[in-house]
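Dear H.,

Thanks for agreeing to be a second pair of eyes. The structure we're designing against is below in token form, covering all 106 positions.
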């Protein structure tokens, strides 16, 4: 699995975990200076847990100083997550499932 959330975060997986990565750039002198790499910042049993931790982490590391700024920060990240999930194909599947359910039960 590879799910790019935004320019800063990506979610991947191995056979046992869902992994939250932060994209970073090598700053030390050398042949890799300036290259981007993925730094694992958390391992989770499900995509849901990884996304919840991403929201919490972004609030904790941001420099927001009020309720409105926190809400704005969560909305921006929520929009990034929603867009990434739709591009990955989750949005369509969910609409198909719930659309079919609603047609059968209304």
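And this is the sequence the design step returned. I haven't edited it by hand at all.
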């Amino acid at each position: 699995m590879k799910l790019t959330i935004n320019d800063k975060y990506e979610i991947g997986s191995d056979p046992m975990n869902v992994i939250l990565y932060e994209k970073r750039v090598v700053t030390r002198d050398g042949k890799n200076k300036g290259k981007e790499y993925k730094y694992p910042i958390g391992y989770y049993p499900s995509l849901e847990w990884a996304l919840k931790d991403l929201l919490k982490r972004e609030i904790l590391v941001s420099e927001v100083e009020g309720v409105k700024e926190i809400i704005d920060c969560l909305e921006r990240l929520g929009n990034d997550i929603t867009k990434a999930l739709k591009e990955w194909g989750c949005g369509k599947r969910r609409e198909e499932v719930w659309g079919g359910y609603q047609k059968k039960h209304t």
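Two observations from my side: The longest strand covers residues 36-44. Helices lie at 47-61, 67-88, 90-104.

Warmly,
E.
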